[in-house]
């Protein structure tokens, strides 16, 4: 994490890395490395957002809480993005909850410091506003996907998004949590996961999911995954090579 006055700071967060070097250098002293713990709540509904997080590994979910106590995932953010969209959009809070879904690390900055930095740096402001639009597109696409596509397609899409943001091919996951992410009953997730496992695309046991055939998983996923992935490429650029090289 250390840098010298003559070099650009290095970060694994792709959004920050997409900044011009002088913008990142100015912002760097205000960024603090933090650890993100599993199920840690980063932002609560209708409470002021005090801190923004730029994940360097792991990922977070934006959840829409419902009156019956359940929640539905409406967005996913990892090292390609950030939390605290209300700060970018000149708001104090929104009605969503943001929780850590896969533990990792991040660079944090106070909401006030980020607002000030955006006001002083047009390049930072432009990039973060474009990211807000990108994330909005993911949310909209998720709503359309959940309303129109079969559960196996939706599950494949979500697993590909999680795989993109994971450190490897295996990550913790339960059917109960997947049901909350996709807004379906646990029995439906069990059936859909069984279909993908029988096809050899995934392996699931003891609360851990392994992607065993990514091309196969991509073949069954709906078009929503590719649309969001290409939009991310347009904003942040795409490195040549494997998925691991692209996301890491």
Show the helix and strand layout:
Blueprint: H1 14-17, H2 21-27, E1 32-36, E2 41-43, E3 51-65, E4 71-77, H3 85-88, E5 97-110, H4 111-120, H5 122-148, H6 151-165, E6 170-172, H7 175-182, H8 186-198, E7 202-205, E8 208-211, H9 214-220, H10 223-236, H11 243-247
Antiparallel strand pairs: 1-5, 2-5, 3-4, 3-5, 6-8, 7-8
Helix pairs in contact: 4-5, 5-10, 6-8, 6-9, 7-8
The SSE string, one letter per element, is HHEEEEHEHHHEHHEEHHH
State the helical fraction. Answer: 40-55%
Oligomer: single chain
What is the count of DSSP helices, taking H or I runs of 4+ residues? 11
Distance between the termini: 15 Å
The major beta sheet can be summarized as: 5 strands, antiparallel
- Classify the secondary structure makeup into a structural class: alpha+beta
CATH superfamily grouping of the largest domain: Jelly Rolls
Sum up the overall morphology in one term: globular
CATH topology call of the largest domain: Jelly Rolls
Number of strands: 8
Unreliable segments of 5+ consecutive residues: 1-5, 239-248
CATH class categorisation of the largest domain: Mainly Beta
**Architecture of the largest domain in CATH?**
Sandwich
Strand percentage:
15-25%
Domains, number: 2
Mean pLDDT metric: 88
What value does the Rg take, in angstroms?
18 Å
């Amino acid at each position: 994490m250390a840098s010298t006055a003559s070099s650009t700071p290095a970060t694994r967060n792709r959004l920050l890395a997409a900044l011009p070097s002088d913008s990142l250098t100015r912002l760097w002293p205000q960024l603090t490395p933090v650890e993100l713990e599993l199920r840690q709540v980063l932002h609560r509904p209708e409470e002021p957002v005090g801190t923004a997080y730029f994940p360097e590994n792991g990922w977070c979910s934006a959840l829409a809480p419902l009156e019956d106590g359940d929640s539905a995932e409406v967005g996913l953010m990892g090292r390609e993005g950030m939390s605290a969209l209300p700060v970018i959009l000149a708001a104090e809070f929104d009605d969503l909850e943001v929780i850590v879904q896969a533990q990792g690390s991040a660079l944090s900055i106070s909401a006030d410091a980020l607002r000030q930095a955006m006001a002083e740096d047009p390049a930072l402001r432009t990039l973060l506003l474009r990211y807000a639009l990108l994330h909005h597109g993911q949310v909209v696409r998720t709503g359309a996907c959940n309303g129109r596509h079969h559960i196996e397609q939706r599950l494949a899409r979500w697993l590909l998004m999680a795989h993109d943001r994971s450190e490897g091919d295996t990550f913790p996951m339960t059917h109960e949590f997947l049901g909350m992410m996709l807004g379906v009953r646990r029995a439906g997730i069990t059936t859909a996961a069984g279909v993908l496992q029988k096809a050899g695309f995934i392996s699931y046991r003891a609360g851990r999911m392994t992607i065993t055939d990514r091309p196969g998983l991509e073949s069954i996923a709906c078009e929503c995954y590719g649309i969001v992935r290409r939009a991310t490429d347009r904003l942040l650029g795409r490195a040549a090579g494997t998925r691991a090289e692209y996301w890491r």
